[in-house]
Amino acid sequence: MGIKNSEENIMNIVNEENAKKRSLKTIIVVLSLVGIVLFAGLFGMYNFMKNYMSTAKTFKYNWGIIIPNDFKEEYYTDTGASFGGDGERYTIYSGTKFTMDFNTENNEDLEDTIKSMYEQLNIPKDKQIDFSHEYQWKKINDRDDKRDVLYIIYDQELNKYYFYELFL
User: Kind and range of the H or E element at 20?
Assistant: First the structure.
């Protein structure tokens, strides 16, 4: 009887170990699947944000401006949203000229406003507008909140568009 009990005890121990291994394998498989699903979800959200919530889409939704498909975004920065509003955003595009009524005379107030924005957003010197070039500009106030402003400056020499959005 002692040998039979020993064999049963050994078999029970082996069965318990096998059950633990199966449980561990099940946990690993489940956690792997959860990780894959989370990764796929985050990747999907990233693609959505990249493709559908681009700065060009933001201009369409916020300002009713359609950025042409051949425009290339060269630079973007923002202050991030704050308690008071969406902050400030600065975007540079290059591309062919799009139809818009621009002011053609230089505007010192505009230049001062843009230069002060450079300091607040820490815009690198090579991403700043060279106001010694000929430029055209437009100021647009938001339809719903007149404090929100979009400045568009077109540098004719570089064929670049500089967009400065200010949300209060």
Answer: helix 2-52
42 and 82 belong to one structural domain: no
Distances (CA, A) of 42 to 29, 50, 80, 106, 158: 20, 12, 21, 46, 38
Q: Span 106-111, mean pLDDT?
A: 92
Does 71 share its domain with 22? no
- Say whether 158 sits in a helix, a strand or coil: coil
* 3 state SS for 66-93: CCCCCCEEEEEEECCCECCECEEEEEEE
Note if the pTM is more than 0.90: no
Residue 1 structure tokens: 């009887």
In the chain the first and final C-alpha atoms are separated, in Å, by 88
